Amino acid sequence: MYKSYTMELAGRTLRVDIGRVGKQANGCAFMQYGETTVLSTATASEKPREGIDFFPCSVEYEEKLYAVGKIPGGFNKREGKASENAVLTSRVIDRPMRPLFPKDYRNDVTLNNMVMSVDPACRPEIVAMLGTAIATSISDIPFDGPCAMTQMGMLDGEFIVNPSQEQWDKGDLKMTVASTAEKVIMIEAGANEIPEAKMIEAIYKAHEINQTIIAFINQIVAEVGKPKHTYESCAIPEELFEEMKKIVTPEEMEKAVFTDEKQVREENIRNITEKLEEAFAEKEDYLAVLGEAVYQYQKKTVRKMILKDHKRPDGRELAQIRPLAAEIDIIPRVHGSAMFTRGQTQICNVCTLAPLSEVQRVDGLDENITAKRYMHHYNFPSYSVGETKVSRGPGRREIGHGALAERALLPVLPSEEEFPYAIRTVSETFESNGSTSMASTCASCMSLMAAGVPIKKMVAGISCGLVTGDTDDDFVLLTDIQGLEDFFGDMDFKVTGTHDGITAIQMDIKIHGLTRPIVEGAIARCRDAREFIMANCMVPAIAEPRKEVGKYAPKIISVQIDPEKIGDVVGQRGKTINEIIARTGVKIDITDDGQVSVCGTDKEMMDKAVEMVKIIVTDFEEGQIFKGTVVSIKEFGAFIEFAPGKEGMVHISKIARERINHVEDVLTLGDKVTVVCLGKDKMGRISFSMKDVAQV
Question: N or C: which end of the chain has fewer CB within 10 A?
Answer without folding.
Answer: N
